[in-house]
Protein: ATP-dependent 6-phosphofructokinase
Organism: Klugiella xanthotipulae
Amino acid sequence: MKIGILTSGGDCPGLNAVIRAIVLKGTSVYSQQFVGFRDGWRGLVEGDVIPLDRHRVRGLAKQGGTILGTSRFGPYEGPSGGPENIQKTLDRLGVDAVIAIGGEGTQAASKRLADAGIKIIGVPKTIDNDLGATDYTFGFDTAVEIATEAIDRLRTTGDSHKRCMVLEVMGRHVGWIALHSGMAGGAHAILIPEQPVSIDQIVTWVESVRDRGRAPLLVVAEGFTLDTMDEAYSTKGLDGFNRPRLGGIAEILAPMIEQRTGIESRATVLGHIQRGGVPTAYDRVLATRLGLAAIDTVLAERWGNMVALRGTEVQVVGLDEALGELKTVPQHRYDEAAILFG
Amino acid sequence: MKIGILTSGGDCPGLNAVIRAIVLKGTSVYSQQFVGFRDGWRGLVEGDVIPLDRHRVRGLAKQGGTILGTSRFGPYEGPSGGPENIQKTLDRLGVDAVIAIGGEGTQAASKRLADAGIKIIGVPKTIDNDLGATDYTFGFDTAVEIATEAIDRLRTTGDSHKRCMVLEVMGRHVGWIALHSGMAGGAHAILIPEQPVSIDQIVTWVESVRDRGRAPLLVVAEGFTLDTMDEAYSTKGLDGFNRPRLGGIAEILAPMIEQRTGIESRATVLGHIQRGGVPTAYDRVLATRLGLAAIDTVLAERWGNMVALRGTEVQVVGLDEALGELKTVPQHRYDEAAILFG
Amino acid sequence: MKIGILTSGGDCPGLNAVIRAIVLKGTSVYSQQFVGFRDGWRGLVEGDVIPLDRHRVRGLAKQGGTILGTSRFGPYEGPSGGPENIQKTLDRLGVDAVIAIGGEGTQAASKRLADAGIKIIGVPKTIDNDLGATDYTFGFDTAVEIATEAIDRLRTTGDSHKRCMVLEVMGRHVGWIALHSGMAGGAHAILIPEQPVSIDQIVTWVESVRDRGRAPLLVVAEGFTLDTMDEAYSTKGLDGFNRPRLGGIAEILAPMIEQRTGIESRATVLGHIQRGGVPTAYDRVLATRLGLAAIDTVLAERWGNMVALRGTEVQVVGLDEALGELKTVPQHRYDEAAILFG
Amino acid sequence: MKIGILTSGGDCPGLNAVIRAIVLKGTSVYSQQFVGFRDGWRGLVEGDVIPLDRHRVRGLAKQGGTILGTSRFGPYEGPSGGPENIQKTLDRLGVDAVIAIGGEGTQAASKRLADAGIKIIGVPKTIDNDLGATDYTFGFDTAVEIATEAIDRLRTTGDSHKRCMVLEVMGRHVGWIALHSGMAGGAHAILIPEQPVSIDQIVTWVESVRDRGRAPLLVVAEGFTLDTMDEAYSTKGLDGFNRPRLGGIAEILAPMIEQRTGIESRATVLGHIQRGGVPTAYDRVLATRLGLAAIDTVLAERWGNMVALRGTEVQVVGLDEALGELKTVPQHRYDEAAILFG
């Protein structure tokens, strides 16, 4: 049996650890052969593969990124896309089954392909922790750790200058990274897409912190929006035309807070460093366990399924379970954290 | 209501984060007062307390250790020990309830005291992850991360010198730290108390790695023993009298491996650095959530219970659930990891 | 003798270590008393002090920021500024001498005050390493380490996506942080204020890297400017009016590179996390040694001087030596690094 | 011109960065060819080489260890050793010159070979910082950083348990790592081979710290010895026969301190993790600069010389300068640190 592996979507610490675990167990226990599709679905659609063996995956448990490359290319793109063409390509390459490592979009595509007969199983991947059917995914813990270290650093500068520091972290649609790093770092407010908060409320928190003699520190997910964004833009002296040129939400909030409270405020946008580099031990263990379970799932021919973490165990769940609703921060988790605000 | 907090047993990253969360929520939401008992049960038995307020717990989310001090003193020790004396001390201090943060021994004592009428609830704490009724406890993730970073460092030296490196990590009775750090670090064998392994098997793994041109790296929990310890001792040239003076198991294994395989071997005993210092973000979040739930549990007057992590949620469980059997590494988790040995 | 300490200018890892060393040696060896001026020169001008003793500086060797607070307030500002008023304030407070920890502006002010008779000595502080008369200053090594870790993380994401990553680090007038972190991280180009480089040259380097099959990674100091900034602005679709609203130079360069080369490009602006948090061991040692030498210099009554690192030794130099020209990256250091570009 | 590179002696973070810099500059600027000798002098003596080109050194700036392997084999060992045989081997391989990266022993051997006509230059390498003629060597900063992080972690556990923590770091003959990490970590005493200190003095320091209400923390270099080692052994209940089986000096000191002071004391031996893994940015920059200078020195045909750091500049010095006396910690550096003891 020859199995193809692909990594799709944004970079994520732990991708290489999944690949390594699949190949090590697949070769030593099941005597299978492996290829990697280059740059995600593009490699599958175009039949662009590299051989994968034990030697090739050596040392990958701790290596960030993906040796296979990744892209946002979809399996239905281009003249060679779609299940029929893909099956022909697989036949031509002698590849019997596919393991697709990726986020919500990837798993939705995998589901469609599985329904059309492609022998495919999924491994969930998302920095943002927004995928249902799995308690956590690898990459999230690393992103939270990096954001928390940034908070630790910003705090000393905020305290020394009595400034309000606003840190923007990843999370376009969900606020998990902000929630966990903000709680770990002792942030005075955590602003997430799931929870609309007015600038008045933010100002109240900030002033409450200042009145206790401390320097306010806020964590904001990139997808958070104020209910009064017009005011946000006008504070920056921008009309509608210029809006796309604005930086992130932190760069909108900091001057608003400064204007309203008189507290010198500074924005930091953490950006891509959250999704690269050496994974935490937690993410390496999770990624390795998911990889080991993925190859078992292939051998069990449970196509159309995905491996997932539930409590302390790795299980096999239907791809459809993972799809549909994004896993947002539930109200009780936000309320739990909000007790420490202000 | 006035509540007393104590931390008992070995140091553990996250203790301060629990204390901080209890006090912040207890004062701001419930308007309670707090004291800390110094040095674990000793402070409770002897009525040795320090006041705790919002100001005192500032900045503790990231601070390792415990500001209350800890010891291995038990609540039944000394002339002032035992539930009757303790209740008198609590009455004298005006303390209405106790939150005891500690491991298996501490929670067993809490159970006895609760059965005797003391208003007490527990927060689980163990570096070793050996406590039932909770998926994980704070401190474990930090210990695993530190051990994993040590493996990453040892690996380059092993490779450069073609040496066999043996790293000893914590785990007197259970092998969780070894299992997770070994998997994260890509160890070639993981030796834990739960799984007897012969020196012949270890030598087979080591030689298999060497034959592939690599430098073997082994992780061993301190509580692992060879089934043939006599040979171990005789390799070190020691008779029974001298055995207690031996270092850890790593220092026994390394010379045995070198003698049997001819591969230069080196032992490293990681020791106390695994249980001190800044907690990982994961442990800070878990410790904070347990602290927040602990104060709710006090307010709900659910004496004799303990807060615990189940999946992604913090729940309240009976103290008796946490006791009894140590949570050892189950067979399927060992087998899962063992596929990557050799 | 009573001595006052102040920290002035931007936050910098190691400030607290200097304060600690001064107070520990000053109290234990010389039996002196200490106060700290709050928020830099403001505390001196306004006579706003806090007492400093051994207990107060406990644990500060590793703590980022400054417990005294800092600001950009100058000693000639306000109705109480200037040497005569300051001397009166010192007399009123019973303070005999001042140690001013700060950068070029602070040391220039210290020089003026010393010339006017104030008993003052300086400790150099600059993240940017732009101060003459001292080989290095504390804070620089920490900033370089943080920037290097960011490069390590960005590299995996760049490689996985075949993107060009552009990292902007601190350095408004000098490129030391960019030079050292770029060399440590293996950057394919380092762009610094001291060295004008055309966009054509940058494109040549980027394409050369791409043609070798690798993902280009550039480090740019915030003060770097293109000789053709008009093109930069027009690429962002901005006319002169909107220029101040642009983000940093990385956000100008990334779209220009993408437009010219067709390589997807991403900017990251590291910002304030470079100047906060736990100092590296190097910076702690340097800051401690400078503090120890500073109190000796006070006792020797060598007013108007500054402590400085020369080779492996801490020496006393005239404040005038430290002033005048910024210490820029010399041509031979740039050429040395540039060999590895492209 | 074809140039051979070797790395000799103990592992050291930065070795790979030197190799990378040599090969990158040598191929791109000077169009030279390179081979690496495997396992230090053994590869040279036995003619065991691997080709080195730009592709082979990719990503090595941050990678610990040495891709060439290292050993303690000497160039005069075996039937093929000695300058005449070595010259024949070089001729056979077509290698024109040798760059030897190593410590005192390596450079002494290089000097002998250079004097006998071998075209060889040296790059200094020592974790211990014990080599004269250079201010610092790569690897030392990384070792100090790792030891300092260990101190930070041990401190919280010491404080929580009111224990005396004794950390043993590398330094068989010189105490530089202990001196710098102890100063950075705020140790209460630093014990180094250069400075005999009695157990009475140590006890005085420890009790002084305890009397101030703090937990004592000591850093000891592995080569430190008590002037009364007989007492040390007898405390452990050992006679002369068993002495070699003792662990390190920390494991001798801790029980002595406990016996004398009644303070519970714990030893930690840091061991091999000090010399492996990712180098600090400081060490990467230094290693890279030394590598770049080394290839220039070869091109200048300055055989028998070594590259060295002097202040902020890399210079070429005679190999004989680097030899002779070990660079020990001078009295004034010890006195400077000792002010903070107790």
Observations:
- The domain at 140-275 of chain D is CATH 3.40.50.460 (Rossmann fold).
- The longest helix of chain D spans residues 140-161.
- Chain D touches chain C through 40 residues (CB under 8 Å).
